[in-house]
């Protein structure tokens, strides 16, 4: 690990100014991903600006009944928050499905959004990787890729986004707020993560020098009836090989509102809008759920070893929507 | 199926012959307090003044030559003391035969410019602090002339060869005409099974601190045998064995990986040059190429039987890999030589040499992957014969060693099945697959047999009667988590006929004299033997009367002769494994709901720690069945995800209530009657789980681990076959 | 105030087990290395150094964290509890005693992390935190009982390679049950007191 300076920021303008003055600087939140990547040599900042003590650790209602979550709220506090659990249970479940109790105590909402992929080629400096070293190639295409992307990937990168939390945020149309030297800004989560294309190393649309200050969840009555399911190769403490955040409002056997997002299938949390379109106003049946999943997964492009993710994701859609339907009836 | 209740019957224990009865009663670990308070110090935790930190640099190419090690810029970095590499390192001698044969050439670090695999040590950077050493090691530029490599392991490689037999592994055995007996069989199973590359991953990374102290080399190390390490370091550095001392007080797990490794050699080289203590600790990633691993295996099982299940033909062919610099055989095919007889019986091993590190012993070497193939195939045979799997095993229970013809010292495997079946509720099992459902989960149960050799290695011990009425036991044993320290207290207490509170044990120090290492399930048996003989002799000395001088009265033992005098027999532990699993075929998730293991393992010294060790082994079996797999990238020849997030082993959430217990297993002709329990817990568990997955889903899984993607694919294929096959069937 | 950005080391004061330690640290030094290499507090273990095993678990301001991904310089001002600070003098903490009695370890290397994590699991549960296996996370559903399944999920960030999970879970359950019984008893006592 290269030597680096360390500064603790106590207010947002101060943090942004520090970064502006030192281009090789990075913000340090919980450090659970950044410090790990620094040890691996993937990240080599000259200065760390510790933002953990910024006054961004609150969760509060917005005037319209949504929730505003500060960027330094820890994953644990987010998942334990009564209003999150009451109004967006899938978000609490998604956070709880991630990492471990220790890591959730450290990790922040802002840092979680900016997690880098866990692709084994990305984290190993001895191997090529277009995301880490643009133009060096993507060995996963012909190498180990059984947990790589089936949607929205490109010939330049097939890595997946590792966050569980972000999948639930995508389902609930979260808006990410940030601050730059030029003032505040906002990005809906659908625009926050960029398509892979030929620039897999540029992962978000955040302007240079921006500090994430929070996430706003718009009010969504459907979210109160939601669930996150995660499948992984160990029962806990492992990244997803497939996951789904789903919310469902069924009345008289008809889907009134639905939200669906998939994890572990793309370079970003995958909002399944095509599936949602198929479902809205249609019957609340397993057949309809399967058809909706098929509509979304039609675009899937599998590599030799990750085609199972199509089946897995489809099955998760049917299983979780069916569970939510049965609960609604009860 | 009603879930059978599992009565918590107390452990049955044999061998309570001594007056005090310490052996056979539960004792918490004597070092327990130190372990739960953090006071127990492991190898990398002993402070030394002037300590310098070494960091290994490993090759990034799979085959070739080192063109240059550009050490000048690194030597100028803050805190850097030296950079050792093939151009400047002291010479070491690897031309010797040690306790386990010829040394792995990877111990001859920095002796030449050849690179035989990714992760071969090419340099050691030593600096004042570990941060400086790490940064300098990462900055060190090493240039290579790369050559094409081959790391592809698969069944049917045309360059596979039969290894030479050695004292540890007989490569082939054959009797009768397998092909003729297969032809004559009413029922035949002919299937291929694979197991992946697996890594020990003890929680404590390998660490050694070396220094010269008063003309002697003093090494604080984490290992499974200080005699082993000290004698080989003496040979490597051409030192008088008496001038080398190796200590290993607490060891954070070993599982076969903690013998000699490059880090000890590097630490000794560096301290010799720098004249100050040097510590070398491996990173988790480095452990993936430097401390051995379990070879992947491709095994073909051919079983031929009469309609009633009697075996006519038994054929177990096992392929594993080795490196280009050293030979190691994963002896997967040895089980059948002990477990089952047949009219024609053949077992053999083949090897393929690849540009990878040399594999090594990993908990239940041979038996662990071998039992997956053999005990899965037995289950398939039972299915084909329409027989209960336990009845099939009973039908083929041999009188004597199927290959050796020697009698068993004790066996009792059927007693294990009987007790296990009773406690597991096996009698109520409907053998038909795919019938039981609970919500999204399909449920199934399975069983398998287990066996592991019960050997002993020569050891010396000393037992001293102290003036204050206490006794000091000196034995160079290693407690790598087995409870050896506590077991030796109990063994000595019974041999001396005094209470355990009067016994003090000193171990893990090569100055205590030569002893067996903690390996091959031989540690406790070997050390207990030496301690018992010394204690018996001390008791005789004390019986003569007279006072005890200030230095105490000491009796010593050496078991070399006693072990040699033991009659040649088939000496093994045995067991029966039972598993219940739940499978969601829509997500591929497999959960183990219950595991029960019943063992016949001679005298159980300390039921508390023995149960822990057996359950630990079974946890390994579960982990092997569902999780463990190191993935090698063909293009680079190195691992992808060489860390504990990429290499999964079971976490808390994967492990249900596991029960282990034992049946009476007296060994009449054995003076010590203790068998090993460190490895048998692993054996057969993966097969029991795979058999249970078949029972739950109707699909056989012959490739480990049983990953979700494999379950999903298999379910898809089964469905497709069912729909395609239906019209014509 | 923090040092100038050009500086790559700082003099810091760490509050560990109620005692203050002042030491110079390279900013690269993790809390784990500061404890083990600089302060001779070696009870906290390094298993992977990547946040993937939990052996280095300590409590930061009462909450469990992996010290290998925590920079020492960033831990200044926080209350740090390590395994060395868990017992009450010579008296073992009930969790330590349960690990010892029930053989909740083998090699002992993951043990300090398991114990620190177990302390936090009991606290987190008492605070009403749900887990990934909690059926219904809505606050109206109440706190789930600390069943073996809940303990397993909550302890999953602490790997054990010897395979001591079964007895670790039993040890945690024993202490959690005792704590619940105590809480029940004191709640009863409070009610009685209030009634009197």
Q: What do these coordinates show?
A:
The complex is a heterotrimer of chains A (330), B (729) and C (196). The termini of chain A are far apart. Chain A is of the alpha+beta class. Chain A is globular and about 60 Å long. Chain A has helices at 12-21, 34-40, 75-80, 82-87, 89-97, 101-106, 109-113, 165-171, 189-192, 273-279, 286-297, 308-329, and strands at 5-8, 25-28, 47-50, 59-61, 67-70, 175-180, 183-188, 211-217, 226-232, 240-251, 254-263, 270-271. Among the domains of chain A are: 1-55, Uridine Diphospho-n-acetylenolpyruvylglucosamine Reductase, domain 2; 224-329, Enolase-like, domain 1 (2-Layer Sandwich), CATH 3.30.390.50. The mean pLDDT of chain A is 97. In chain B, helix 9 (367-385) runs parallel beside helix 16 (685-697), helix 12 packs parallel to helix 13 and helix 15 crosses helix 16. Chain C has 2 domains: 9-85, Beta-grasp domain (Ubiquitin-like (UB roll), Roll); 94-195, [2Fe-2S]-binding domain (DNA polymerase, domain 1), CATH 1.10.150.120. Chain C has 5 helices and 5 strands, in the order ββαβββαααα. Chain C is globular, with a radius of gyration of 19 Å. Mean pLDDT of chain C is 93; it is low at 1-6. Chains B and C meet through helix 1, helix 3 and helix 15 of B and helix 1, helix 2, helix 3, helix 4 and helix 5 of C. Chain A: Pfam families: CO_deh_flav_C (PF03450), FAD_binding_5 (PF00941).
Short description:
Chain C: It holds the Pfam family Fer2. The complex is a heterotrimer of chains A (330), B (729) and C (196). With 729 residues, chain B is an alpha+beta fold.
Distance between the termini of chain A: 56 Å
Order of H and E elements of chain A: EHEHEEEHHHHHHEEHEEEEEHHH
Give me the Rg of chain C, rounded: 19 Å
- CATH architectural arrangement of the domain at 224-329 in chain A: 2-Layer Sandwich
- What ranges of chain A have pLDDT less than 50 throughout 5 or more consecutive residues? none
Q: What structural category do the secondary elements of chain C indicate?
A: alpha+beta
What's the quaternary structure here?
heterotrimer
Identify the overall geometry of chain A: globular
Report the sheet with the most strands of chain C, covering strand number, pairing sense and barrel closure. Answer: 5 strands, mixed
Low-confidence regions of chain C? 1-6
What's the average pLDDT of chain C?
Answer: 93
Helix content of chain A: 25-40%
Top CATH class of the domain at 224-329 in chain A: Alpha Beta
Q: Note the run of SSEs of chain C as H and E.
A: EEHEEEHHHH
Number of domains of chain C: 2
Keywords (chain C): 2Fe-2S, Iron, Iron-sulfur, Metal-binding, Oxidoreductase
Pfam family, one (chain C): Fer2_2
Protein name (chain C): Oxidoreductase
Pathway (chain C): Alkaloid degradation; nicotine degradation
């Amino acid at each position: 690990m290269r030597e680096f300076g360390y500064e603790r920021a106590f207010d947002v303008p101060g943090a942004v100014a520090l970064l502006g003055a030192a281009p090789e600087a990075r913000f340090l939140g919980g450090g659970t991903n950044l410090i790990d990547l620094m040890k691996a040599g993937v990240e080599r900042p000259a200065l760390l600006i510790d933002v953990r003590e910024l006054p961004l650790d609150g969760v509060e209602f917005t005037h319209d009944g949504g929730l505003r979550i500060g960027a330094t709220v820890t994953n644990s506090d987010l998942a334990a928050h009564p209003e999150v659990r009451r109004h967006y249970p899938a978000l609490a479940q998604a956070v709880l499905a991630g990492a471990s109790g220790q890591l959730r105590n450290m990790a922040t909402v802002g840092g979680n959004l900016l997690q880098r992929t866990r692709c084994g080629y990305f984290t190993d400096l001895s191997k090529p990787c277009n995301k880490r070293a643009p133009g060096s190639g993507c060995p996963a295409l012909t190498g180990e890729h059984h947990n790589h992307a089936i949607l929205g990937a490109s010939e330049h990168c097939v890595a997946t986004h590792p966050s569980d939390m972000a999948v639930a945020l995508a389902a609930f149309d979260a808006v990410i707020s940030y601050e730059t030297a030029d003032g505040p800004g906002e990005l809906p989560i659908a625009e926050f993560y960029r398509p892979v294309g030929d620039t897999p190393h540029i992962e978000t649309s955040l302007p240079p020098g921006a500090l994430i200050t929070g996430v706003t969840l718009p009010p969504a009555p459907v979210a109160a009836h939601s669930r996150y399911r995660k499948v992984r190769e160990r029962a806990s403490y492992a990244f997803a090989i497939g996951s789904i955040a789903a919310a469902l409002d069924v009345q008289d056997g008809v889907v009134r509102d639905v939200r669906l997002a998939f994890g572990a299938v793309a370079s970003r949390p995958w909002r399944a809008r095509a599936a949602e379109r198929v479902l809205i106003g249609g019957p609340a049946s397993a057949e309809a759920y399967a058809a909706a999943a098929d509509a979304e997964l039609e675009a899937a492009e599998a590599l030799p070893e990750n085609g199972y993710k199509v089946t897995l994701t489809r099955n998760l859609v049917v299983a979780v929507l069916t569970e939510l339907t049965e609960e609604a009836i009860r | 199926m009603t879930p059978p209740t599992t009565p918590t019957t107390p452990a049955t224990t044999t061998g309570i012959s001594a007056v005090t009865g310490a052996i056979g009663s539960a004792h918490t670990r004597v070092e327990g307090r130190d372990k739960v308070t953090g006071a127990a110090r492991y190898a990398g935790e002993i402070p030394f003044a002037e300590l310098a930190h070494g960091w290994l640099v490993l090759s990034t190419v799979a085959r070739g030559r080192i063109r240059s090690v550009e050490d000048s810029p690194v030597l100028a970095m803050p805190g850097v003391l030296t950079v050792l590499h093939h151009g400047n390192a002291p010479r070491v001698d690897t031309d010797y035969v040690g306790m386990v044969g010829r040394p792995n050439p990877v111990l001859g670090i920095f002796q030449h410019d050849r690179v035989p695999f990714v992760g071969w040590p090419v340099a050691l950077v030593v600096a004042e602090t570990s941060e400086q050493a790490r940064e300098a090691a990462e900055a060190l530029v090493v240039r290579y002339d790369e050559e094409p490599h081959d790391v592809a392991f698969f069944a049917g490689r045309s360059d596979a060869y039969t290894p030479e037999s050695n004292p540890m592994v007989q490569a082939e055995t054959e009797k009768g005409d397998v092909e003729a007996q297969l032809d004559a069989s009413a029922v035949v199973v002919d299937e291929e099974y694979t197991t992946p590359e697996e890594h020990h991953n003890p929680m404590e990374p390998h660490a050694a601190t070396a220094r010269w102290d008063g003309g002697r080399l003093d090494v604080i190390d984490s290992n499974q045998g200080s005699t082993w390490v000290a004698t080989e370091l003496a040979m490597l550095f051409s030192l008088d064995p008496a001038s080398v001392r190796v200590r290993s007080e607490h060891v954070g797990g070993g599982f076969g990986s903690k013998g000699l490794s490059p880090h000890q050699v590097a630490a000794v080289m560096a301290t010799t040059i720098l004249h100050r203590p040097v510590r070398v600790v491996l990173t988790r990633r480095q452990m993936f190429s430097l401390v051995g691993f379990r070879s992947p295996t491709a095994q073909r099982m051919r079983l031929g039987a009469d309609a009633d299940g009697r075996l006519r033909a038994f054929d177990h062919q096992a392929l594993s890999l080795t490196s280009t610099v050293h030979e190691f055989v994963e002896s997967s095919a040895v089980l059948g030589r002990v477990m089952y007889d047949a009219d024609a019986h053949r077992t053999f091993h083949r090897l393929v040499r690849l540009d990878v590190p040399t594999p090594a012993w990993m908990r239940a070497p041979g038996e662990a992957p071998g039992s997956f193939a053999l005990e899965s195939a037995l289950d398939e045979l039972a299915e084909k014969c329409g027989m209960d799997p336990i009845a099939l095993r009973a039908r083929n229970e041999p009188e004597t060693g199927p290959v050796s013809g020697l009698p068993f010292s004790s066996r009792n495997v059927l007693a294990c099945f009987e007790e296990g079946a009773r406690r597991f509720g096996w009698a109520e099992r409907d053998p038909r697959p795919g019938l039981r459902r609970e919500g999204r989960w399909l449920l199934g149960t399975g069983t398998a047999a287990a066996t592991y050799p019960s050997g002993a290695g020569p050891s010396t011990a000393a037992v001293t009667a102290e003036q204050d009425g206490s006794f000091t036991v000196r034995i160079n044993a290693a407690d790598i988590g087995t409870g050896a320290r506590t077991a030796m207290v109990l063994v000595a207490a019974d041999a001396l006929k005094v209470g355990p509170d009067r016994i003090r044990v000193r171990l893990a120090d090569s100055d205590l004299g030569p002893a067996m290492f903690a390996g091959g399930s031989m540690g406790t048996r070997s050390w207990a033997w030496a301690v018992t003989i010394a204690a018996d002799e001390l008791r005789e000395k004390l019986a003569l009367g007279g006072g005890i001088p200030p230095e105490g009265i000491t009796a010593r033992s050496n078991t070399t002769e006693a072990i040699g005098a033991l009659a040649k027999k088939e000496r093994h532990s045995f067991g029966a494994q039972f598993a219940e699993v739940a499978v969601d075929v829509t997500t591929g998730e497999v959960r183990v709901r219950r595991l029960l293991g019943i063992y016949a393992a001679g005298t159980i010294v300390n039921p508390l720690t023995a149960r822990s060790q057996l359950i630990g082994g079974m946890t390994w079996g579960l982990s092997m069945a569902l999780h463990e797999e190191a993935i090698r990238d063909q293009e680079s020849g190195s691992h992808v995800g060489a860390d504990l997030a990429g290499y999964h082993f079971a976490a808390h959430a994967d492990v249900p209530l596991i029960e282990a217990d034992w049946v009476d297993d007296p060994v009449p002709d054995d003076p010590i009657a203790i068998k090993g329990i460190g490895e048998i817990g692993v054996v057969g568990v993966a097969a029991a789980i795979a058999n249970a997955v078949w029972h739950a889903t109707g699909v056989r899984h012959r490739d480990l681990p049983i990953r979700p993607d494999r379950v999903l694919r298999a379910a898809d294929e089964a469905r497709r076959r069912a729909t395609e096959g239906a019209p014509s069937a | 105030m923090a040092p100038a950005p050009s500086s790559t080391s700082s003099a810091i004061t760490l509050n560990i087990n109620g005692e203050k330690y002042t030491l110079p640290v390279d900013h690269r030094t993790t809390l784990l290395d500061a404890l083990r290499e600089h302060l001779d507090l070696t009870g906290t273990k390094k298993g992977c150094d990547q946040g993937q095993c939990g052996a280095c678990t300590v409590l930061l301001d009462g909450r469990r964290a992996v010290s290998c991904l925590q920079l020492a310089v960033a831990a200044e001002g926080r209350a740090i509890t390590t395994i060395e600070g868990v017992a009450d003098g010579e008296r073992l903490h009930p969790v330590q005693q349960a690990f010892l009695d029930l053989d909740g370890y083998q090699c002992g290397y993951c043990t300090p992390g398991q114990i620190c994590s177990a302390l936090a699991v009991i606290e987190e549960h008492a605070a009403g935190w749900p887990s990934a296996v909690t059926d219904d996370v809505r606050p109206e559903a109440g706190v789930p009982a600390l069943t073996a399944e809940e303990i397993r999920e909550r302890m999953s960030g602490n790997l054990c390679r010897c395979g001591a999970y079964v007895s670790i879970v039993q040890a945690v359950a024993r202490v959690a049950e005792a704590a619940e019984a105590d809480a029940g008893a004191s709640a009863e006592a409070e009610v009685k007191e209030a009634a009197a």
